[in-house]
Amino acid sequence: MKANRATFFRYLYLITILLFLLLIIYGCRNGGGSSETVIGNSCVAPLSVMNKEKSTYQAGRNEYRFNYNILAKLLGYTNFELKRKNIAFAQTGKSISGSIRYDDRVYDNTGFTGGTELKPVRFAAVEVVRNSDSIVLSSSTTDSSGRYSIQFTNTDTPGVYIRVISETDCVLIKNSVSGNAIHAVISPIINDSAGESFIINMDIAVSSEAGGAFNILDVLTDGMTFLSSLTGTPQPTLTAFWEKNSCDGTYFESLDNSIHLLGGCSGDTDEYDDDIILHEFGHYASANFSRDDSPGGPHSLGDNTEDIRLAWSEGWAHFFSSAIRGNPRQVDTILNSASSFEMEGPSLFASSFDLDSSSIYTTNEVAAAAVLWDIFDNTNEAFDALSLGINSIWDIFPGYLILPTV
Q1: Where are the alpha helices (DSSP H) in 290-388?
Q2: What is the pTM for the complete model shown?
Q3: 268: left (phi over 0), alpha (psi -120 to 50) or beta
Q4: Calpha distance 173→280 (Å, rounded)
Q5: What is d(CA 39, CA 336) in angstroms, rounded to the nearest whole number?
Q6: Would you report the helix, strand and coil content of the chain in percent, each value rounded to 5?
Q7: What residue spans define the domains of the chain?
């Protein structure tokens, strides 16, 4: 009897192993996620550039991959937890590593200075692509310093290149609403038959068609990091549209959670205007975590007869941009000059216009921004005895400015 029982458990064990292998094979043949998923900065879902529908890069791809859903169930994790733990079958083969940087344009309250500053491309999608057939062999992301390392196997024609995509876990930068293409840059072709490991560093110049896209990505990454520290929850996906020489912009569209930025058709460009990009990000925060009844329409800094809903909406966006940057100054570059103001005063730079005397009433956007800034900042005047920081403001922003219930 004991022998029969032992035999039964041996057969049960073998059957379990066979079922496990069959599930793995089935999962491989029916698609799955990349085995090098990297979790970025607190967004709705982990980036999976191998499977995203929005990109046309993956056309014709038909490779066997381990199915995360099946492995997750077998190992007792959810699919998301499994990716976070980076549990995957190790890839063998060759490797490419390096760093990705972009040139940022430096500006002050009078406009661009003419200088540039190299900054890391953070948390962006990076792919190894085979040159002969455009198949993506492997993917990963850069880290907070712009570094990356990818392992890949090429069993076909030698010759691969690195593609860096203007996309993170929750932000992607596209060239236009109609074109719907994601900005990307590629490296020179690498002869991967010539070695086992390669170092490829890339610097994206201002003159590059995609240079501005990576600054927008970096600025919105700062915004997402700041917002995540307040909400403690994943952020809804944000798409930013920018195309060189485009007239579309600058505004936030709540219908599809998108930011549109001027590309310079009239000479004004906003892809390097960090303050303006984060102003639009302030509207994104308001639309997704609070209440914004703004009717939209024309508005200006010195207008103290605005619709109170418009004044609040624009004032909040001015303030939130400054809170993220830790600077009460707002600069909008225009050709070789700039329009700029400071909400601490408030004061308008390089102008005889008296912004302080105009920034009164709840119907002025600068007045709304200045009150929020005085509550937030540590610089106090006789009339400003508050230094509450961002958390006290945020406690009210999503908790009380809510839609009415019937």
Answers
A1: 308-325, 355-358, 365-376
A2: 0.76
A3: beta
A4: 14
A5: 40
A6: 30, 25, 45
A7: 229-396
